[in-house]
């Protein structure tokens, strides 16, 4: 697994709607646990974003977890 570090962009799975939201890592607790600044997407979330604390990594999209963005095309 990639090593999380402050400033990296990841996906946060919203608890209520399972929507994947872009987020920045703002604190690293361990290789699998971070704090995130979750960005609003304009459709599901209104406002300036929010902090999600002590979020665990999951390869499968599960509520209130983070994962690395999916690769698209030939990346």
Explain the layout of strands and helices.
Layout: E1 9-13, E2 20-28, E3 33-38, E4 50-57, E5 65-67
Parallel strand pairs: 4-5
Antiparallel strand pairs: 1-2, 1-5, 2-3, 3-4
What can you see in these coordinates?
By secondary structure, this protein is mostly beta strands. It has one domain (9-67). Helix content is 0%, strand content 41%. It has a five-stranded mixed beta barrel. β1 (9-13) and β2 form a beta hairpin. It is globular and about 30 Å long. The two termini are 17 Å apart.
Output the keywords.
0% helix; 75 residues; mainly beta
Number of helical segments with 4 or more residues: 0
Helix-strand pattern: EEEEE
- How would a crystallographer describe the biggest sheet? 5 strands, mixed, barrel
Regions with pLDDT < 50 over 5+ consecutive residues? none
What's the N-to-C terminus distance? 17 Å
Number of strands: 5
Beta-strand percentage range: 35-45%
Structural class: mainly beta
**Could you say which overall geometry the principal axes of the C-alpha atoms support?**
globular
| Mean of pLDDT | 89
Describe the strand arrangement of the main beta sheet, using strand numbers. 1-2-3-4-5
């Amino acid at each position: 697994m990639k090593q999380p570090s402050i400033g990296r962009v990841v996906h946060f799975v919203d608890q209520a709607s399972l929507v994947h939201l872009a987020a920045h890592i703002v604190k690293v607790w361990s290789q699998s646990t971070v704090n995130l600044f979750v960005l609003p997407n304009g459709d599901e979330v209104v406002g300036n974003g929010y902090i999600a604390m002590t979020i665990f990594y999951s390869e499968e999209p599960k509520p209130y977890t983070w994962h690395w963005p999916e690769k698209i095309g030939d990346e």
